[in-house]
Amino acid sequence: MSGTAAGTRPTGADPLAAALRPVRSGNTFEETVQRVLQLIRLGLVPEGERLPPERELAERLQVSRVTLRDALKVLQDAGLLEIRRGRYGGAFVLPARQDTPSGDGAELRRRAELLGDRLEDTLLFREVLEVGAAELCAARETAGEEEERLRECLAATASAGLADYRRQDTRLHLAIAELSGSVSVAAQYAAVRSTVNELLDCIPLLPPNLEHSERQHTELVAAILGGEPERARAVMRQHLAGTAALLRGFLA
């Protein structure tokens, strides 16, 4: 891109356009991670080269610079980027690390390859099950011991450390499936969540993502206990889209 002023794009074909689409959903952090990962995984920014300037990335993704910095930091922690400060600084793509499969996504890709075409089917099936379960749960009267169970599961995810977070997250989602009133939905959810957890275990737990998830969990439980089926559907769909975005990002 020599000869192009910093923060601007060439007038011809833009090789980065496919990955740097504006982030549209409510899962801003997760989709930002996904977009930057696509730049790296697709080789649009080669190893050793610098990503576009922070200001340009934020403008093209239409996210705040705070969100972008959070995304770049977790990718630095995962061993994919090196953040350099100073006049000639920026975010530089590091060579792929063979010794850290959870950081570079190698194990995730291996497991995804074993799933083959069933990966997207698994994510879609999970969405259908969980969005439907959230709606059914909100349409029922959830009170007494059932309400107490939901609140206890929500509190457990909020207070969980990184080592225990995924287990507590699974407990909350399984509780919603079970409280939908359908034994079959709960059984199918348990099976699909097992597959999803195998994939999630291959990528790092990202604190900004967990904080965002907790806000969504709180809103989801409030919609269920408030008897708002449509709101529960919408929150659950957006929540699952964030997880799917991270998985697709690390797989790209």
UniProtKB/TrEMBL annotation:
Keywords assigned by UniProt, alphabetized: DNA-binding, Transcription, Transcription regulation
Domain of life: Bacteria
InterPro entries noted in UniProt: GntR_C, TF_FadR/GntR_C, Tscrpt_reg_HTH_GntR, WH-like_DNA-bd_sf, WH_DNA-bd_sf
HTH gntR-type domain residues: 26-96
Gene3D superfamilies per UniProt: GntR ligand-binding domain-like (1.20.120.530), Winged helix-like DNA-binding domain superfamily/Winged helix DNA-binding domain (1.10.10.10)
Name the UniProt record assigns to this protein: FadR/GntR family transcriptional regulator
Species this chain originates from: Streptacidiphilus cavernicola
